[in-house]
Amino acid sequence: MRVSTRSNAFPGSAIRGINEEVVKLERVGVKVYGFHIGQPGLPPSKDLLLEFTKNMLEKPFEYSMYTPSSGIEELREAIAEDYSKYSGVKITSNNVSVSAGSAEAILATFMSIIDEGDEVVLLDPTYLMYEPVINYLGGRVRRVGAREELGWEPSEEDIKAVMSRRVKAIIMVNPDNPTGRVLSESMVRLLVDLVRDYDAFLIYDEAYKHLYYEGSHIYAIKYDLDHVLALNTFSKDPAMPGWRLGYLVAHEEFIKVFNRVKQYTNLNPPTPAQYAGLLYLRKYKEAYLREVLPIYKSRMEAMYNALRKYLPEASVVKPRAGLFMFPNLKPYLERLGIDDKEFSTRLVRDVHVAVVPGSAFGERGMYHVRMTFAREDERSIEEGIKVMAEYVNANNRK
After folding, report:
1. Which residues, listed in sequence order, are joined to residue 170 by a DSSP beta bridge?
2. What is the average pLDDT across 172-180?
3. How far apart are the first and last CA of the chain?
4. Which long-range contacts (CB under 8 A, 24 or more apart) does 83-90 make?
5. pLDDT at 398
6. pLDDT (tens digit, 9 = 90+) per residue, 339-382?
7. Residue 89 CB: number of other CB atoms within 10 A?
């Protein structure tokens, strides 16, 4: 079978691999402690769904037809108003393009900026989708180590050391997936200054920008609209991951290029999802956030406290935002004589606790696991981590 050699740039997602194990177990009725998948554990607003369903039944053709590839104007206007409100930067619908989830926005962004041999700066560890797409398009990845001792922020010196005229973009997830880290304002300013100085882009992934438990989000676009490409999604705070709706905020000249490219990645974002997203922004967002944030914060505290209680030798940075923790299990895994990949596979198969191996996100993730506190309630979180600790101790070679 003569498939593309370039397809080898996509190795397969470790997250999806673990999720396949979970699906097999749950299909036969096995209870799995689901700390693996990065999606909200609470459903969308019931009132929103009721109103959406009513509207769709009343306007079935409108909700099912093609739209502009950049999204319906009403949604782009609503996004612009919402983003302006929270960021303090006045943007218009011309600064917005709607996508089929942030995954399409990532792909179309890279297709819009990367030429053969261009360098793209990634943190190690970072979200695992970026590197394969960069490699597929002929770009070169330059890794910068995020430092656990700095709360998973890179050092200023390390970032500056990789910059050159060959660098086309820096990618930064804030709040972070997988570590849960929130960037300091000084780091955001430094990144913006660097991309401006080198005429590059800061690709600023803001998927978790409204899921803060302490402090508030720093909008990089307020420092430079020309060089910041802000990736966003409706998968996280509205809890609509399966609806596949995202958007990009950028300078209108870049949006023109992005829209031209995006016509070839997808004809248009899912039409029903666009109208659901419009309802969320216009009527339900603030009330929904008031409802879910205390729940996620309580689950975050439960996971952090359980890790400290049952796995005291693990180090873990307590997140101020997002849905993840990234505990370092090195003392335990070294005694077991296995790495994080084997540990994650054994853990879900043997005792039905699902986590993602940290090395899937980069070399500095070795001996770590990514855990989300979004899906399980406080009781299940403690139970699952207790089971995890019992498994580690029962199988300790020493």
Report:
1. 121, 202
2. 96
3. 48
4. 83/232, 83/249, 86/209, 86/210, 86/217, 86/219, 87/219, 87/221, 87/222, 88/219, 88/222, 89/219, 89/221, 89/222, 89/225
5. 46
6. 999 999 999 999 999 999 999 999 999 999 999 999 999 999 99
7. 17
Cα-only R_g, the chain = 21
Note the pTM of the prediction, 2 decimals.
0.94
- H/E stretch holding 232 reads strand 228-233
CA nearest 34: which of 22, 25, 46?
22
H helix runs in the chain, sequence order? 14-27, 46-58, 73-87, 101-113, 130-136, 156-162, 185-197, 252-262, 271-279, 285-310, 330-336, 340-351, 378-394
Q: What is the DSSP string of 38-107?
A: -S-SSPPPHHHHHHHHHHHHHSTTTTTS---TT--HHHHHHHHHHHHHHHS----GGGEEEESHHHHHHH
Residue 9: predicted pLDDT = 82
Q: Model confidence over 66-98: pLDDT tens digits?
A: 999 999 999 999 999 999 999 999 999 999 999
Kindly tell me if the per-residue pLDDT of 397 is higher than 60: no
Distance CA 212, CA 289 (A): 10
* Residue 150, both tokens: 């700095």
